[in-house]
Amino acid sequence: MTSSLITLKNYALDEWREASGGLTEVRSALTGDTIALTGSHGLDFRAMLNHARTVGGPALRAMTFHQRAAIVKALATAIMERKEELYALSLSTGATRTDSWIDIEGGAGTLFTMSSKGRRELPDDTVLIDGAMEPIGKRGTFIGQHVYTSLQGAAVHINAFNFPVWGMLEKLGPTLLAGVPAIVKPASSTGYVAEAAVRIMLDAGVLPNGALQLIMGSTGDLFDHLTCQDVVSFTGSAATAVTLQSHPVIAEQSVRFVAERDSLNASVLGPDATPERPEFDLFVKEAVREMTVKAGQKCTAIRRVFVPAALLDAAEAALKARLANVVVGDPGTEGVTMGPLASAAQLRDVREKAREIGREARLVFGSIDQVELRGDRGKRGAFMSPLLFRADDPWRASLVHDVEAFGPVATLMPYRDLDDAIELANRGQGSLALSLFTYDAAVARDFVLGAAAYHGRVVLIDRDCATESTGHGSPLPMLVHGGPGRAGGGEEMGGIRGVKHYMQRTALQGSPRVLSAITGQWLPGAPRPAEGPHPFRLRFGELEIGRAFDTASRIVTLEDIEHFAHFTGDTFYAHMDEEAAAANPFFPGRVAHGYLLLAFAAGLFVDPAPGPVLANTGLDSLRFTKPVSPGEAIKVSLTVKAKARRNEGVGEVRWAVNITDSTDETVAAYELLTMNAA
């Protein structure tokens, strides 16, 4: 054991607690030395869940989405400010600086993105509306509205060893935004990095008590105490996922179980991508990068490489030439591009799986048991060579489509035509990521239609997008991360979609008045108080939801229409040619421009003097529902639909605008957005 040996601690019931016994050793992937002891013996898991539900949950649910988003941003900022501490620890996991950048700064970036989306796309409230109001009664006094509210349990996050920071933060961001406390259990082999990241976040002082707890060993009887209000989010092997998901409480209590597990991801070189075209080189570069980044220990890494049969030899030569430039060794040594696997156990497992693949595929690059190293450290580390196999008959092979060697291992295979490539890609029985390198848009469409159902993400790369592309294997916080079948059937991130996994969707039925009060948004049919000053005279904090203003009417004349047409250049026949307009099945004759109606509407409801309204930032959901003929009168109903504070000095007001004619029928409707002084 080394002199720097540390004992990792759990964080339970808002206290750091060392296990009372049963500690296990954690060894450096680089040197093989024991660097830490870890365990969770003695924790009261029932009490931890109860603490999350009764202390952390109520504190988070009392906050609005925007307040929670601010916490998520503060956590990301704290990670970035102390990132070098995490980089130093990450070396012992075998990660290069680039590998750690993906894990540490990529994790913080995920939190930043989730915080930003939370502020932009979620209300400054605790209830999230889902979809439009559903009318039920004929008179509009009984309506329906779907809403999301926070689950009142805890989220149990069980994370994998390969990304101890990112893997934790990509789950934590959506969970906290949803208002749900988390109990995090990292993998033991790299848990010392996760523990350090949790310390950094707790030191930031922004999390309420009970919002975050940490288990540094076995989960014991934790699952025995789960309820229908809890969520389990798991990343790891299919075997472990099945064991956990088969726990009787998961079934009895209908506990939500989100799994991200084994994935035999594939990359396909399109039939149009010959060696002379840019897509060929892009494909080879990406395949090698995915094999060697994080020593291939990525759930999205390319395991199966498919090329047109005629290009099999050329692809093999190109892949081997690029693999020859990979330098394996101490990730702290200059020039090293691939470090060791995360542990000796992981090395043994990858070698065993590689030998299985070798039963039906030929090894064309690397050695299963030997590797040339750079750097002074590493004689006892978990190092291995990148391995490229070749299977000339993938249609008769089975192991290459079923066995995942979770390391720098991939198998090159031919396909006959595009349909064959799709069938081979789908033989993985569900994956997280699939990539296609082609410049033919028709090929890309056919490929997606044939393969998308088996893959959580399809990356289409060509010469146009290559410079900006994040590549085959990079999950992004705004897109869904997950996949069907073998990949687990779960989804994570995906922007606000990920937040909803920790919320309950409920169908509300009632009067517009009551449902408006519950949702914090004005719904058609709810009261519209219009007394007092013009709403443009009221500051953001003074405007109440439902506050209304009904305008006088204005007649739209033929002269107005012709002036608008010549002034704007919009002389479309429906506005300028009576005979042609009358022949159109949508118009009775010449009609007003839709945008003329919008301009006149603004003239009717705008209070022009300087005041709290600072800017009009746009409009949403515009619909023109009935034509307006010359000589007809229009009027406007303006209603405060929703509000969202953007900062201390400014808030966004969403106005429901309804333009009606002299028969009170709607001719146009939209939502106006203004920025108002607080």
General description of the model:
- There is one protein chain.
- By secondary structure, the chain is of the alpha/beta class.
- It is 31% helix and 23% strand.
- It contains 19 helices and 28 strands.
- It has a seven-stranded mixed sheet, sandwiched between helices.
- Helix 6 links the parallel strand 9 (182-185) and strand 10 (212-214).
- The chain is globular.
- The termini are far apart.
- The model has no long low-confidence stretch (mean pLDDT 93).
Summarize the entry for a quick read.
This protein is α/β, with parallel strands linked by helices. The protein contains 19 helices and 28 strands.
Question: Into which percent range does the helicity of residues fall?
Answer: 25-40%
Shape: globular
Structural class: alpha/beta
Please outline the major beta sheet. 7 strands, mixed
Secondary structure elements and pairings:
Layout: E1 6-7, E2 10-12, E3 15-17, E4 24-27, E5 34-38, H1 45-61, H2 65-81, H3 83-90, H4 97-121, E6 128-135, E7 143-150, E8 155-158, H5 166-177, E9 182-185, H6 191-203, E10 212-214, E11 231-235, H7 238-245, H8 248-252, E12 256-260, E13 265-269, H9 278-292, E14 302-308, H10 312-323, H11 344-357, E15 362-365, E16 387-390, E17 409-415, H12 418-426, E18 434-437, H13 441-451, E19 458-461, E20 480-482, E21 491-493, H14 496-500, E22 503-510, H15 512-519, E23 548-550, E24 554-555, H16 558-568, H17 573-576, H18 578-583, H19 594-605, E25 613-624, E26 633-645, E27 650-661, E28 666-677
Parallel strand pairs: 1-5, 8-9, 8-11, 9-10, 11-12, 13-14, 13-18, 14-17, 16-17, 18-19
Antiparallel strand pairs: 2-3, 4-5, 6-7, 7-22, 15-16, 20-21, 23-26, 24-26, 25-28, 26-27, 27-28
Helix pairs in contact: 2-4, 2-6, 3-4, 3-6, 4-5, 9-10, 12-13
